[in-house]
Amino acid sequence: MAEKIVVLGSNGQIGTELVTALRKVYGESNVVACDIRRPDYDIKNSGPFEFVNVLEKDTLKSIFQRYKPTQVYLLAALLSATGEQNPKLAWDLNMNGLLNILDLAITYQTAKVYWPSSIAVFGPNSPKDNTPQFCVMDPNTVYGISKLAGERWCEYYHQKYNLDVRSIRYPGLISWKAAPGGGTTDYAIHIFHDALKKGTYASFLNAATELPMMYMDDAIRGTIELMDADASKITIRSSYNFAGVSFTPEILAAEIRKHIPEFTLTYAENDPRQNIADSWPRSIDDSYAVKEWGWKPEFNLERLAIEMINNLKK
Ligand code: AKB
Fold it and tell me: Which residues lie closer than 8 Å to 261 by C-beta, 6 or more apart?
């Protein structure tokens, strides 16, 4: 059967690139981009687009009725930093948006659902280095709490209703095509823009804050590989640990200086995002993803920096 794919939250940092990648694989007319905001030129002109608020059940229902999707990707969410500015909205959007989609997927017999989780599900008492798939999880941001609860719902819908729902715990994602969406890891994108434009950047995280990160091409490829994997290989229905590279602002700045030798990095004090970063892992053990569906990242720090600088220069 031909695939019909609906991507909710298509205009965000991940959605912009995921829609383009899915349209290449499945055909432009078979991937329906949906967002609450007007899309950019590429998304609108390369296939169908619908205005959808994931909290409006009737609109969502009409999308399921009209397109009869075989796969649904739900990307609409408030991230860690913006979530802290509006905790109730973050909980409402991140939780009820997910529950709406899980319910409609059962009603309309959607073959597969994808929903992203995050390293934000870990907290101050989770192991910091090589954080395992299964360990203490005590997130202290509303974003992390909603992602952890969402993971439990995904597993519950799989066990109770046999819904084929798949998920990845994304690290900070680094890309040049679309703006980042209000997260704690956003510094690792802003730094490239400012390095090229101003030759200097004021990091809101301190020099030694190490966090797991990944170049967007790896994240998109991994996501599609997980969705393509044979269901018999997927044992984790909460969300898979997923690793690329880990670095600190200081290490990233040193890498940027290989291309822009005059680049200087300063540090802004007392930013609330520092506390969030301090509660997250430094690196991730993704051995389940490696073993079960063959995950392998391709972009190390060196390659990621070259891609960012060369593309942003253009
Ligand atoms: C954030 O910083 O909130 C996100 C994430 C790691 O989920 N990039």
Answer: none
